[in-house]
Amino acid sequence: MEKEIEIIVPFYDLDPMHVVWHGNYVKYMERGRCALLADCSMTYENMEKHGYAFPVVTMRVKYVKPAMFGQKIIVRTVHVPDENFLIFKYEILDAATRSKLCVAETKQMAIDIKTHESCFQLPEPFLTTFGGTK
Amino acid sequence: MEKEIEIIVPFYDLDPMHVVWHGNYVKYMERGRCALLADCSMTYENMEKHGYAFPVVTMRVKYVKPAMFGQKIIVRTVHVPDENFLIFKYEILDAATRSKLCVAETKQMAIDIKTHESCFQLPEPFLTTFGGTK
Amino acid sequence: MEKEIEIIVPFYDLDPMHVVWHGNYVKYMERGRCALLADCSMTYENMEKHGYAFPVVTMRVKYVKPAMFGQKIIVRTVHVPDENFLIFKYEILDAATRSKLCVAETKQMAIDIKTHESCFQLPEPFLTTFGGTK
Amino acid sequence: MEKEIEIIVPFYDLDPMHVVWHGNYVKYMERGRCALLADCSMTYENMEKHGYAFPVVTMRVKYVKPAMFGQKIIVRTVHVPDENFLIFKYEILDAATRSKLCVAETKQMAIDIKTHESCFQLPEPFLTTFGGTK
């Protein structure tokens, strides 16, 4: 599963160096991930209805080239099948040239909303959707 | 009731003009308000326990002078007694000179969390605490 | 001059009440304003080339109904002709029903970037573009 | 070199799960880093005076336990001597119990502000301050 969304860099995301402040890419990644999850009917609301939340447990980001005000950028989110975690890889690209601005990865763990217990394997129906094809 | 808190302007709040982005003052105002509310045991959690939320219904901000990176600023929050709304006035000042950077006002309305109904008068115990002295 | 843009409410803009945190509407307003300004070739970069910045000097916001996660909203930005300030009015609407979520107004003043002096009248070419029809 | 700062978790940093949104820890890390840098007279302004900017090139974050509204947290920032990069490690701790909420690492590279060229070794005076002792 993968998904591309386009974002136009807003003014309020810039820092005094006239580039996107590095922490704001985390927002772009979340927008990409939520768009992919919506495509497979796994919005946060649906996850909650199944009784689980999926907090991010690790995040790695590599910054390649800065994004500028008004620039059209693509967030390409790719799901990585895994039985234990919800794993996504991200590429943030310039929309015109598709040159890489940023690459990243996040890992999310299922938490039972009632008991607050962590799940070391994805519970159903998440295992079927995200667990890969053995 | 009034309260002063000190904030050191963080880098991530700046915009490309090297000053605090105007929308970020809303965060400073909320920090001032929450500090004042905590002093009178009216944290958001306590409000929720009493069954009410207090969304902001109007906000006015006047920007006088920009705040810069690393600047020590004071948020002075003053409660304005009122029977219908939770009203606060704010002054954001340079800590060293107390010169004015920003003045603002917010109005919050009580909402019954269960019924989602708006309260056109402050419910108890908020009326006693915030309603003024007549 | 007016302009409508569509925004899908992102997760990271929500607060614990499951609605958009009130300060985040300021970002939506800026995106609407920048889209309108781009349409008349008055991006912030162009303003800077003419030697002026336009900090927001006053802002008023009225919150009518909360916006939710994933909701499609419209920011309708309308320029109000004025010789002294850059004035915009905003309506934030539900995209499906066009019911009002938020109305707002901002006023921006021209500042000479070199001298840091405020302009009590819009300088050219801004006066011609934004000053109205007399 | 190391530095501890205290932060009280503000309401606007929370997400609908009533915990700090994962992207906001990046702000806490920056506040810790800037406090440490100020202690050794290496604020961003001073870096700029020397002709260099230090964009973050990689960031890794591991989330251990969520931070809540009003919680007092400590950001412990430790400089890791290195000749090529400005490297910091972070621990975000509950202030009362010092239990770990989050650990992270960032790497920053020197960029010559005039030429926009990356420096594969720290330039002076940064090499002396941050390069370690051999």
How would the blueprint of this fold be written?
The structure is a homotetramer of 134-residue chains.
Chain A: E1 2-8, H1 25-39, H2 44-49, E2 52-53, E3 56-63, E4 72-80, E5 86-94, E6 100-108, E7 111-112, H3 126-130
Antiparallel strand pairs in A: 1-4, 2-7, 3-6, 4-5, 5-6
What does this structure look like?
The structure is a homotetramer of 134-residue chains. The first copy, chain A, is an alpha+beta fold and 134 residues long. Chain A has one domain (2-128): Thiol Ester Dehydrase, Chain A (Roll), CATH 3.10.129. The first copy, chain A, is 19% helix and 34% strand. In chain A, the strands form two sheets. The first copy, chain A, has a five-stranded antiparallel β-sheet, with helices on one face. Chain A has a two-stranded antiparallel sheet with strand order 2-7. The first copy, chain A, is elongated. The model of chain A has no long low-confidence stretch (mean pLDDT 95). The A-D interface holds A 16-17, 19, 22-23, 26-27, 30, 44, 53, 55-63, 66 and D 16-17, 19, 22-23, 26-27, 30, 44, 53, 55-63, 66.
